[in-house]
Amino acid sequence: MENDIPPFRIGFGYDTHRLVTGRKLMLGGVEIPFEKGLLGHSDADVLLHAVCDALLGALNLRDIGFHFPDTDPRYKNADSRLLLKDTFQLVKQKGYALVNMDATIIAEQPKINPHIPAMQQVIAPLLESRPDCISIKATTHERTDAVGQGESMIAQAVVLLYQRQNERT
Ligand code: MG
To answer: Most buried among 22, 63, 120, 159, using CB within 10 Å?
Structure first.
């Protein structure tokens, strides 16, 4: 039975952060000009955190808070690109590589779409992939709830991983 399992693993990640004044807005590893930024122990890049959790979830490796605890001063204002890079090293150590990822950012403002190509260019090399395998979409919450009132953002991501040929038994 074990050998019948196809060499693919899917993972899902979800994250949310509050939007506050006095912080720069980092999304998908890209600094976006805006009057508010996301609040968190690290740079609070909600998209990259969701991608980290998707990668970890795919391999049943717990979650981002377990690997990069917000009680650890090393991660104060941490660049989430480095957290994603470290997370992908765990994926590689397990013998897996990325097929593709697909993510949605939910934010009322600012406009996300103009920044998506830059995010793809940042994320693809961190996952040793290509920009056309890194799908990022954006939507709003139609002015309902906290996201819709501009108080927070949400990101969701799924990844598909494949086991490298030489790791298969
Ligand atoms: Mg987070």
So the answer is: 159
- In degrees, to the nearest 5, what angle opens at C-alpha 11 toward C-alphas 9 and 12? 165
* Nearest partner of 148 among 113, 110, 106, 108, judged by Cα: 108
Distance 132 CA to ligand 1 centre (A): 25
Residue type, 51: V
Q: How far is the CA of 59 from the centre of ligand 1 (A)?
A: 19
Amino acid at 130: R
What is the distance in A from the centroid of ligand 1 to the CA of 78?
11
Q: How do residues 23-81 score in pLDDT, each as one tens digit?
A: 999 999 999 999 999 999 999 999 999 999 999 999 999 999 999 998 888 888 899 99
Using the mean position of ligand 1's atoms as its centre, give its distance from the Cα of residue 152 in Å: 12
